[in-house]
Specification:
The complex is a heterotrimer of chains A (about 425), B (about 450) and C (about 290).
Chain A (H helix, E strand, L loop, with lengths): L2 H45 L4 E10 L2 H4 L7 H6 L2 H12 L6 H8 L5 H12 L7 E7 L2 H7 L16 H12 L3 E5 L2 H4 L12 H32 L4 H13 L4 H15 L7 H25 L3 H9 L4 H30 L2 H5 L20 H9 L4 H35 L1
Antiparallel strand pairs in A: 1-2, 1-3
Helix pairs in contact in A: 1-18, 4-6, 10-13, 10-15, 10-17, 12-13, 13-15, 14-15, 15-18, 17-18
Chain B lengths: L2 H30 L8 H38 L10 H13 L1 H6 L2 H39 L6 H41 L2 H6 L3 E2 L14 E2 L2 H32 L2 H16 L2 H22 L9 H26 L2 H9 L4 H30 L2 H6 L17 H9 L8 H34 L2
Antiparallel strand pairs in B: 1-2
Helix pairs in contact in B: 1-2, 1-5, 2-5, 2-6, 3-5, 6-16, 8-11, 8-13, 9-11, 10-11, 11-13, 12-13, 13-16, 15-16
Chain C lengths: L4 H4 L4 H10 L16 E12 L2 E12 L3 E5 L6 H8 L9 E9 L2 E2 L7 H7 E4 L10 H12 L5 H14 L3 H4 L12 H13 L5 E5 L7 H14 L4 E5 L3 H7 L2 E6 L2 E7 H6 L4 H7 L5
Parallel strand pairs in C: 3-8, 3-9, 6-7, 7-8
Antiparallel strand pairs in C: 1-2, 1-4, 4-5, 9-10
Helix pairs in contact in C: 5-6, 5-8, 6-8, 8-9
The chains are: A mainly alpha (about 425), B mainly alpha (about 450), C alpha/beta (about 290).
């Protein structure tokens, strides 16, 4: 057999192996993609309905006896009045046939406790409502919401579902009367956390994340850029600088939870800074994102053609001036890109925040850096633990909001990077 | 005067010093008929501002850092029975702090604590007035010095640049301080832990049940701190994760770098990178809501009993998270193998896969191993996925269908909620943190070293 | 010896343009007989494109059996591109397109059913920069026989490795350290190792792309000597920057200019009495 014949005899087998290998590659890519699709579809499928919520339109008589018994419109009295009673009365009127304590309790269970706060707000805003009867869209209880969204299966035996047949009957009656509707869920964006799914929102968590990121940005950007400038431009080549570089590279790979331990032991226990606050969260996330920013900033300084610095030095600028007047402005978009990516990381991070206590149940959105707060990913973690279906839905919705922020940030970074690429 | 207001005043005064120094220098030059200053007027301005303002700001920040401790010391000194409460000194400080910061805690606090909190508030008010006075007088003294010593002869630019350089150096040393901070914090608390629990028991003990009586009179187990089940659980989940991530990540890197048409590559690469940008808490939720029930259901149909918080589910999802990490590191490493190697092999008549398997991969192996080590270190340190999808009970098992717990899960469980810094339960978290830090550090060191050596080979 | 750095430098764009603009009216059709007796491969009307840019224009050339044809010309003249067409190495470059026929045994190697794997086993290649694999010397040479399944057992393989190394004139220098990495050899030895690797699969044609441009004069002399030996068993096409090298090793020479084959003929004729003005300018050192 000649050489060529020998080779030909093995060719078919080798081409099969080649095809197999290529198929492995395609399979790997497809698997990766399908994980991505599965991840996103499952979260969207779980969460998109949380952006609407079931409302019920009730005729509410703003009874002066209940709201303002003294008739003096005293804000204190208006604030502390029993608005829930108005809701209850209205519901009893809807179902006059229902009597007895437990029956009536079931009827009122259709409405959310939050509808009382809603009424209170309306009255405080416009005290003239007192004494009138208005048709008001009020938030239904989360179980009713779930029923309307089809998550409560009517076929399941009565004692295995959260709503019994009678209550479903009440809701159907209201629905037939055309006063049950799904509307955009504003509560989700305007409220803090709550034990009741229908009253829970992400505003508090968003504010917490925002304040935390402000602290992180204000600290990590200048420090990161300064460190990068020093290491690229002024650092002598010696052991100490090597040590710094090793440290930076290592910190980039240290698990984030370790930074949480550092924050707990040093910032909270040693410096006595207040627990659960954006300022401590910001400090911890600063330490965590610094390596990312330093590394990205160094790369973008390296990318500036040395001729620019030499030109500046050539006309008599000091190294410092050449750096700050000429190199830094050119490197800045790259540094910003790195910073945005670092901030996106920080925004998605939750483990270190658990360590420093930003996992508390906090209803009021924080208004300052030293108010107790949670962050958006931590809120997701907290809600994901709750058994109610309403929270599962809101967890997914909160994830969608978080992802929307991350996508925006990363898209900005990509856009900036493209712009830089064009210039050189 | 509130501290925040004070800092604004100090900053305003410093900027005043800037303009003043700059003006003064220009005037002096004119008067002295100096035609050329050795530095720009702005440099003199900055120097004036720094000389005048920096010491005051230093005083200010030093006070802010140590204020808490100093005031608390004072407060504790006046408490009648502070001595007898020394055993729970930290608890007491915590209570007082809560009472100061939180009106509700104040309402609920004991008489002594309330008294202490009141005293603290008084002291802190006096202190902030004293601080303002101190800062302002330091500023005044320094300004006087500026008036005396800042002359056109001072080499302002060089001084400023020295100062800026010092600041830059300080910023870059922060990395070292962070590492020192990490080491000290975990080491210190862990050493306190090892005073109660012998280190050998921690490292080699097979039983982990950290629940223990907080008060002496409580009945309860004394707690067991054998961390082996946690180590095994961590390794089991990381192993499952690598089983998913290593082949998929590596093969997709190979396909994208060697086979895919450039259009596919430019589309698929960023799509895969998205997986890396998804926050871990999202993966945790995905694991808990989608993957775990699916695996359990699937197990039931084929007659397998899968725990609802199985290691398999957590590992699988963690693997998905690590895919882009493995693939982008492998991609870099594969791209670093010179084109000449590919040409050489293809020119002999090797197929693409033969070239890949027999030439490129062996050449890239050190780099790939380095990347995998980094990925493992990442899997070991990953927290949210396991907190949300893995179990809490420490089973010593190698069966991925059962629930296991991990080092990070235990750290979170031990530290979230009420903490008490002299119970071994809390301190155990730091011992676990120390172990975690040490292991990931060693892995990172090896990985970075291997990857660097590999890069140098082809540079 | 023309192995100085300067010759490897690509011509700056400006220079190339002046060349073009100065010679606009010059006829670029091939002068001389591009055929040869007993050809091993035939290049017919080959055009090569990189994306929209054409690199080779209507080239016809024969590669003769048991002889050496050298391809010379200024940088960017398309000679390497053409060489890489002969074993379809251009397939590995994104956006590269080849038109025309490259025949071997009367069959177009660009035909759909031709497997480049087999083609490349028959048409071996040696590259500009020595590129031994990061494996042992033995494994480097054994690579081809192994992937092509040419050997039954270890003895066969050892025999092939030994003969190949011997034919490449490397055996004496490395026979005691066959298990050492090939990357540890000197540049000239590495290039001879690559030649040994190429001939281990007994190709019919060997393509050499400036095989000596990264080597010192002594190593270059050894390779040139080796090419003379190899000619007895193989057909060789060599791209070179060095006219002296072309004169020393080849029987026929083809001169390329801006993607055109300008002149081809017996080496001694080309260098003593070039017919085309461009060829003359090149070999007298007016440009290139």
């Amino acid at each position: 057999m000649s050489r060529a014949e020998q080779i030909v005899s093995g060719l078919a087998r080798r081409q099969r192996a080649e095809k197999r290998f290529r198929a492995y590659g395609i399979t790997a890519i497809l698997l990766g993609m399908s994980f991505l699709v599965l991840l996103f579809t499952s979260i969207i499928a779980n969460g998109y309905q949380a952006f609407t919520q079931t409302y019920i339109e009730l005729p509410i008589y703003f009874d002066p006896e209940v709201i303002d018994p003294n008739g003096d419109r005293d804000p204190q009295a208006l604030f502390s009045a029993d608005y829930w009673k108005l809701v209850k009365t209205s519901m009893y009127q809807q179902f006059p046939q229902v009597s007895g304590r437990s029956g009536r309790r079931e009827v009122t269970r259709i409405m959310s406790g939050g509808s009382a706060f809603d009424l209170r707000e309306r009255v405080i805003e416009n005290p003239d409502l007192i004494g009138t009867t208005q048709r008001v869209w009020l938030v239904a209880d989360d179980d009713i919401d779930m029923l309307m969204k089809g998550y409560i299966d009517r076929e399941v035996p009565e004692d295995e579902r959260r709503l019994n047949d009678r209550m479903i009957g009440y809701v159907d009656t209201l629905d037939e009367a055309g006063i049950v509707e799904r509307k955009f869920n504003t509560t989700f964006f305007t409220a803090g956390d709550s034990r009741e799914p229908e009253q829970a929102g992400i505003l508090g968590a968003l504010m917490g994340s925002f304040l935390t990121l402000i602290v992180t940005l204000l600290l990590s950007f200048p420090i990161g850029v300064a460190a990068a400038i020093y290491l690229e431009e002024f650092a002598p080549r010696n052991r100490f600088i090597d040590l710094i570089e090793i440290n930076i590279n290592n910190l980039a790979a240290v698990p984030s939870i370790i930074f949480g331990l550092l924050g707990l032991a040093i910032f909270i226990n040693w410096f006595g800074m207040p627990r659960s606050t954006p300022v401590v969260g910001g400090l911890v996330l600063t330490l965590m994102t610094l390596p990312t920013i330093i590394i990205a900033s160094r790369v973008s300084i390296q990318a500036v053609p040395p001729s620019i610095k030499e030109a500046a030095l050539g006309v008599g600028a000091s190294r410092m001036q050449a750096m700050f007047h000429h190199v830094l402005p050119i490197a800045m978009p790259g540094m910003l890109t790195g910073t945005i990516i670092g901030m996106a990381q920080a925004l998605g991070e939750s483990a270190p925040l658990l360590m420093i206590g930003m996992v508390a149940f906090i209803v009021e959105p924080p208004s300052g850096f030293t108010d107790p707060a949670t962050a958006l990913p931590v809120q997701i973690y907290l809600w994901s633990d709750s058994p109610e279906r309403g929270f599962t839905e809101r967890t997914s919705a909160a994830i969608l909001v978080l992802l929307a922020f991350l996508v925006t940030m990363n898209a900005t970074a990509v856009y900036l990077r493209k712009k830089i690429a064009k210039r050189f | 005067m509130s501290p925040l207001f004070l800092i604004f005043i100090l900053l305003a005064l410093s900027s005043a010093a800037y303009f003043f120094s700059q003006r003064r220098m220009l005037r002096q030059t004119r008067d002295a008929n100096i035609t050329r200053l050795n530095s720009l007027p702005e440099h003199f301005g900055m120097l004036g501002a720094i000389w005048a303002g920096a010491p005051a700001l230093l005083v200010y920040f030093l006070w802010l850092i140590f204020e808490g401790d100093i005031l608390m010391g004072q407060v504790l000194a006046i408490l009648p029975d502070a001595e007898s409460m020394a055993a729970t000194r930290e608890l007491l400080i915590g209570d007082i702090r809560n009472a100061i910061n939180n009106p509700i805690s104040y309402q609920m606090a004991s008489e002594e604590v309330r008294m202490a909190a009141d005293r603290y508030r008084e002291l802190s008010q006096t202190a902030s007035i004293a601080l303002a006075a101190a800062c302002l007088s330091v500023f005044a003294i320094c300004s006087a010095l500026v008036l005396k010593f800042l002359t056109p002869r001072v080499r302002a630019r060089i001084q400023i640049e020295k100062f800026v350089r010092g600041f830059l150096l300080l910023c870059s040393t922060l990395a070292i301080f962070t590492t020192i901070g990490i080491v000290l914090s975990v080491l210190f608390e862990a050493s306190r832990f090892f005073q109660t629990v012998p280190i050998t028991e921690f490292l080699f003990g097979l039983d982990w049940s950290p629940q223990m009586a907080i008060r002496e009179d409580q009945v309860g187990s004394s707690g067991a701190f054998g961390a082996v089940p946690l180590f095994v659980g961590t390794l089991l989940i990381s192993f499952v994760a690598m089983l998913v991530a290593a082949p998929i990540g590596l093969m997709s890197a190979i396909y994208l770098s060697e086979y895919a048409p450039s259009k596919v590559r430019t589309a698929a690469k960023p799509l895969l990178e998205i997986l890396a940008g998804v926050p871990t808490v999202v993966y945790g939720f995905f694991a808990a809501i989608v993957v775990s029930p699916a695996l359990r259901g699937f197990g039931a149909t084929i007659g397998l009993d899968v725990a609802s918080e199985s290691a398999l589910a957590a590992g699988l999802v963690m693997g998905i998270m690590i895919i882009p990490f493995v693939s982008s590191l492998s991609d870099d490493v594969i791209a670093a193998v010179p084109q000449a190697m590919r040409d050489g092999s293809l020119g002999m008549g090797a197929t693409h896969s033969e070239t890949m398997r027999r030439v490129i991969l062996p050449a890239a192996l050190p780099g790939i191993i380095g990347g995998l080590l980094l990925a493992i270190s990442r899997a070991i340190g990953e927290t949210m996925i396991v907190v949300m999808a893995a179990g809490l009970s420490a089973n010593l098992t190698a069966n991925p269908l059962e629930a296991v717990t991990t080092v990070t899960v235990q750290i979170v469980t031990l530290l979230v909620g009420d903490q008490e810094f002299d119970s071994p339960k809390t301190l155990a978290a730091f011992a676990l943190g120390l172990t975690l830090f040490f292991v990931t550090l060693v892995l990172n060191f090896i990985a970075l070293y291997v990857v660097r050596k590999y890069r140098e080979q082809y540079e | 010896m023309d192995t100085t750095e300067a010759l490897d430098m690509p011509i700056p764009d400006q220079l190339e343009e002046t060349v073009i603009s100065g010679k606009k009216d010059i006829d670029l059709t091939t002068v001389g007989d591009y055929t040869t007796e007993n050809p091993r491969m035939k290049i017919r009307d080959v055009n090569v494109f990189y994306g929209a840019k054409q690199a080779v224009f209507d080239v016809n050339l024969d590669i003769g059996s048991n002889s050496v044809v050298s391809m010379i010309g200024p940088s960017g003249c398309g000679k390497t591109t053409l060489l890489r067409c002969l074993n379809r190495m251009n397939d590995t470059i994104d956006g590269c397109r080849v038109e025309g026929r490259v025949e071997m045994d009367g069959k177009n190697v660009y035909a759909r059913k031709v497997d480049p794997v087999l083609l490349r086993a028959r048409v071996g290649m040696v590259f500009q920069k020595p590129n031994p694999f990061p494996k042992s010397i033995f494994d480097n040479v054994a690579y081809g026989p192994r992937i092509h399944g040419l050997v039954r057992d270890r003895t066969d393989l050892e025999e092939i490795v030994h003969t190949s190394l011997e034919r490449a004139g490397l055996l004496d220098e490395v026979k005691d350290r066959l298990d050492q990495p090939g990357t540890g050899l000197s540049g000239g030895q590495q290039q001879r190792l690559c030649i040994a690797r190429a001939i281990a699969v007994s190709p019919e044609v060997i393509l050499m792309d400036e095989p000596c441009s990264a080597l010192d004069p002594i190593a270059t002399a050894r390779i040139e000597e080796l090419i003379g030996e190899l000619r007895k068993n193989f057909s060789i096409a060599i791209v070179t920057h060095s006219m002296q090298q072309a004169a020393r090793v080849s029987q026929r020479t083809a001169y390329f200019h801006l993607g055109y084959l300008v002149e081809v003929g017996p080496t001694k004729d080309i260098f003593t009495m070039p017919k085309h003005q461009l060829t003359e300018e090149y070999i007298t050192g007016r440009f290139g």
